[in-house]
Design goal:
With 211 residues, this protein is of the alpha/beta class. 35% of the residues lie in helices and 21% in strands. The strands form 2 sheets. It has an 8-stranded mixed sheet with strand order 3-2-4-5-1-8-9-10, sandwiched between helices. The protein has a two-stranded antiparallel sheet with strand order 6-7. A hairpin with a 2-residue loop joins strand 8 and strand 9. It is globular and about 55 Å long. It starts with 12 loop residues before the first helix and ends with a helix.
Length: 211
């Protein structure tokens, strides 16, 4: 009888259950909202203007500095006064040596940066709409940087990301974070006990009628 053979991409149940993945050991309100997500892959954050999205992105960046070097490519605002004020408000000086603001670097330049030695472990791109990428180009970019954590910030159309490519990215992302009323909701594969994080707690409680 011929021996049963498996190709290298096929894995048995025991092999799948025995696989190890690097995760981030979140704690406190971050654990409550998002559990312990993987260190690599793609996340997406979206929400309408004035909901606390930028504040949340900076709070997240500051927290993620515990797990690696973080860079924020500000394609939409760049280095400007409003960004400077946001940095001061969120105390970003505390992570000065582990956080880098990149001023309006296009995706080709960013790809080169991410291939360098000692490049950022975590790359935040704000916003997806300003990258000019379609979904195919996004997949190619993701595949080139599989060892990184890529976090895209997106405009919203109602309760979904704005545009066909952004919606497709949302379905592909492992962690999907929707921001509304100063509260960030986990919509992806990693969800903690509460499933949400309050960006500005007093404003969130007022917005959601919890005062």
């Amino acid at each position: 009888m011929a021996k049963l053979t498996f190709d290298r991409n096929a894995k048995g149940v025991r092999e799948v259950l025995g696989m190890k993945y690097e995760t981030m050991d979140f704690d406190g309100p971050w654990l409550d909202a998002f559990g312990r997500p993987e260190r690599r892959g793609v996340w997406i954050i979206w929400g309408n203007s004035g909901t606390g999205k930028t504040t949340f992105a900076l709070q997240l960046c500051k927290y993620l500095c515990r797990f690696g070097k973080v860079a924020y490519d500000s394609l939409e605002e760049g280095a400007c006064l409003t960004m400077q004020n946001a940095f001061r408000r969120e105390g970003m000086m505390e992570v000065n040596k582990r956080f880098l603001l990149i001023d309006n670097e296009n995706m080709e330049e960013l790809s080169v940066r991410l291939k360098r030695q000692k490049s950022p472990d975590i790359m935040v791109i704000d916003s997806f709409q300003y990258t000019g990428m379609n979904y195919r180009q996004y997949i190619e970019f993701k595949e080139r940087h599989r060892r990184k954590l890529l976090i895209f910030i997106s405009h919203a159309d109602g309760k979904l990301p704005n545009g066909r490519a952004a919606k497709s990215l949302m379905y592909d992302a492992s962690l999907k974070i929707y921001v509304e009323g100063f509260r960030a909701f986990s919509k992806g594969r990693f969800i903690g006990p509460t499933g949400h994080y309050d960006i500005v707690p007093e404003k969130a409680r007022t917005y959601w009628g919890e005062e």
